[in-house]
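User: ok so my PI wants both of these folded by tonight, can you help

Assistant: No problem, let's get them done. Here's the first:
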Amino acid sequence: MLKLFTPNYYIHCFQVLRPEFLLEKGIKVLVCDIDNTLVPHDVALPSPQVKEFIKSFQEVGIQIVFISNNVEERVAKFANGLNATYYYFAMKPLPFKYHKMLKKFKVKRSEVAMLGDQLMTDILGANIMKFYTILTAQVVERDLSFTKINRIFENMVFSLLKKTGKLVKGEYDE
């Protein structure tokens, strides 16, 4: 059961992830959560660092997809001009939008990586789909109110992962 919450790779910041690392793993699509993965939830537009990050993957042929549980207006505004597909109100960890994405891009599950900041939504959903999972630390500590509830359960899972030696919060792979 804990395996579903365990990422394949754990990083302190999205910027340390390199396209070459994913290419070596055969990844063709990088699915990115937005809120608190790339920018704080209350920042509407991508930073120059996010734009550079996205561009670096696109330049080597890795497709970028944004997937968020947030509303269309927020996700569309963020994705505008980034040449990336996006899915809003994804209901992560449920698999509906992931299946839609696989169909659109005609890729195998083994060719998809998920980058996110939450065990309970991003990592769980992507592990259910058997994607390569990358957990990043939160961009900032502040969260939306419903995310704060998820963080309570997430901390319980982190505690169990630590006890079993699978993952220690703050001990990154990079």
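One down. Here's the second:
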Amino acid sequence: MGKVFGYPKFDETGEKILTTYDNEYSAMNMDIRVYRMKAGESRSFLRSGEETAVLLLSGSVTYGWEDESQTVSRKDVFTEGPWCLHVSGGVEISVKAEADSEILVQCTRNEKSFDSKLYCPEDAPWGYSCVGKFGDVAKRRVNTIFDHDIQPASNMVLGEVLNDPGNWSGYLPHCHPQPETYYFLFDHPEGFGASFVGDEVFKSVDGSFSAIPGGRLHPQAVAPGYQMYTCWMIRHIDGNPWLQTDRNEDERYVWLHDAKF
């Protein structure tokens, strides 16, 4: 089935490879990479038969696509919302770093065409989830940049989670048939957490990721004192797209919904 945890490094060109169609994480059915860009550096992305989303993690970049361009900035993922350019196959994206920056690039196969869109922070507002539940230790902020409801022609979902220090997310333990990839960042470089994939668990650290096959339970937690960021990316199954209601909780834990803490 392939590996479910990864600790990739940036190479000398500033590229970090997470999942591809033919590496150890091919079950994700997505090509996901992160790039560090120096001020003044440019990159372009053009994939035939594949949609592409370029998410700004930090810094300032100028996006170029079709006949449009826009310069955007994000101090970091912990204090400001997302900017993300999403295009269908055959549309070229150019990214110029106006300052030292990091971007995440998510791609998957898709022959459908749709209008290109630059999502801004107002399009994907943070909202708290699980407030007051389970002793208030599963509270986290979540945004959805795009999903099946927002862009039904897409084969992907992209969003972000911010865990409060010491808290859980993805709780109760739940699963869905579509594969999902988590990319982790921490507000301090020594920060860490725990990511569960089925019965396996790994230490999530800054820049690591988990590749969750469909049908596997995947709660996670972060150590006290540290805020954890998770970029969550789902690949729809043909004929079975992931929907916000697709949350199959492990029946052993559902009693906690009514428990008093």
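The chain has no helices and 22 strands. The chain has a mean pLDDT of 96. Good luck tonight!
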